[in-house]
Design a protein that fits this description.
Layout lengths: L13 H18 L1 E5 H20 L2 H10 L3 H14 L8 E8 L6 E7 L4 H11 L1
Antiparallel strand pairs: 1-3, 2-3
Helix pairs in contact: 1-4, 2-3
Length: 131
Amino acid sequence: MRHQKSGKKLNRNTAERKSLYRNLITSVITHNRIRTTESKAKAVKPFLEKVITMAKKNTDAARRMLSSEVMTDEARNKLNTELVERFKDRPGGYSRILKLGPRSGDQTKMVYLELLASDHKKEEKKKSKES
């Protein structure tokens, strides 16, 4: 029985699962949106949120932790500059899952896992309407 065991195994052993999560996180950071299966997206979303929150701390320890979770220098640089600036006022909820429908080959549910756009656009629209 799996009482109080959190997370999905995704039919992988521990090393393969961690590698999958790291690669998905790196891809989302690099491309802002990826197409993946619903179960993988739901499994990796909490880890993605924690990585972005960790990057917002901007300490030496946080940077070391990020280097173990985010696989490429390009993604780490984007995370530490662009994404931290984008989400600096947001307390959480940096990503979302958009459902697409079944994959044609095996009918697996497919989704987009994407980072939210900046809130500055919404604030600018509100200010322009008030003026």
